[in-house]
Amino acid sequence: MSKELKRTAKKEDFPYKLSSCVWEITLSCSFSCKYCGSRAGKAQEGELSTAECLDVVRQLREMRLRRVNLIGGEVFMRPDWQIIVASLCGAGIKVCIITNGYRLKDEDLKFLKDVRIESVAVSIDGPENVHDAWRMKGSFRQAVESVRRIDSYGIPVSVITALRRDNAAVLNEFYEETVSKLPIFAWQLQSCAPMGNASGSAEAVRYSFRDVIKWIAKTAPGAPFVIGAADNIGYFTPEERAIRGGKEFAGCGAGLCSIGIDSKGNVSGCESMRDPSFIEGNLREKSLAEIWYSPDSFKYNRNFDESMLKGKCADCPEGPYCAGGCRSYNFFTSGSLYESRYCARGE
Questions:
Q1: What are 92-143's pLDDT values in tens digits?
Q2: N or C, which end of the chain is more exposed by having fewer CB within 10 Å?
Q3: Is 8 exposed, middle or buried (0-12, 13-18, 19+ CB in 10 A)?
Q4: Regarding beta strands 186-191 and 226-229, do their DSSP bridges make them parallel or antiparallel, or are they unpaired?
Q5: What is the pLDDT of residue 334?
């Protein structure tokens, strides 16, 4: 049996307040997508047990976490996913499940409605031919149908699209023919990084941030839902507030306000930082509080100052504010944490 997860009291005066978590509860998945950053497909040996997951929930509650995004793999392929979700919701934590939308069952949707899940996000990556080419034939239609079925249960639903060269080129077509007709409250556009199954595909995932930002700023005001850019697209162009809900990008939040937990209990600043060098500890060996409050954790962000910026970011007047952009995307596209080589300001 695994060790009992340790308990540690919270510290009210700590300068960094944990507010959000992306938790990968399994790598089991119905697909093995060509660009999957986590190389999902089969469950890993040694994934956290039900009891360990429930203890993670307890620790998240004790740290007054506000929101968890549950991911996989595919969340619904973990046999005890309902137990985990019910525990999170019962602890007063807002939960969003991110899914491929493949063969969602009616009993699953009824359960999510009953526990008052905050929302479900379905990954749809482009027109049918593009989406199916990267996932599986028939997966596009299943995902679109799942969006409609989720909405029919009164559950807030959104769409997430991982942008690459192929689908960025047909973004407007995808919006006009598909996304604009879906009953969603938000559409998030994020960049696909060359990691996991997409390793070595830097050119395939490269596209113009500037073009996408301009398109969002032009299209969003007339859209029937919110359209926004994720933290790995940017930064500080004239459209900055238009693509971030009236706000400005304030730098990578990994280890400052957010964490990632993988299916084996490894903790990092962000679940997109999928490299062993970013693991700060394991929940079978240390409590979440011990990891979070340690002076040795998340140094790449907690010890940041503008002198660490590299390349064009070092000379950019916005560098001290955006802190060089998304650490994960930088790492996998250039190997440098503190330089956003594809920043829209440099295009």
A1: 999 999 999 998 999 999 999 999 999 999 999 999 999 998 888 999 999 9
A2: N
A3: middle
A4: parallel
A5: 85
Element (H, E) at 20: strand 20-24
Largest CA distance in the chain: 55
Q: Tokens in use for 104?
A: 């969602």
Nearest to 288 by CA among 81, 59, 57, 24: 59
Query: Burial code of 236-269, b = ≥16 C-beta within 10 A, e = fewer?
Result: bbebbebbbeeeebebbbbbbebbbbbbbbbbbb
pLDDT of residue 30: 80
Total count of residues recorded for the chain: 347
pLDDT digits (tens, 9 = 90+) for 176-209: 999 999 999 999 999 988 877 667 776 678 899 9
Give whole-number Cα distances, 54 to 21, 80, 161, 268, 293, in Å.
Answer: 15, 11, 30, 19, 21
- For every residue of 128-140, DSSP letters joined together read HHHHHHHS-TTHH
- 185, 249, 243: which is closest to 210 by C-alpha? 243
pTM of the model: 0.92
Return d(Cα 159, Cα 188) in angstroms, integer: 6
The Cα–Cα gap between 60 and 187 comes to 27
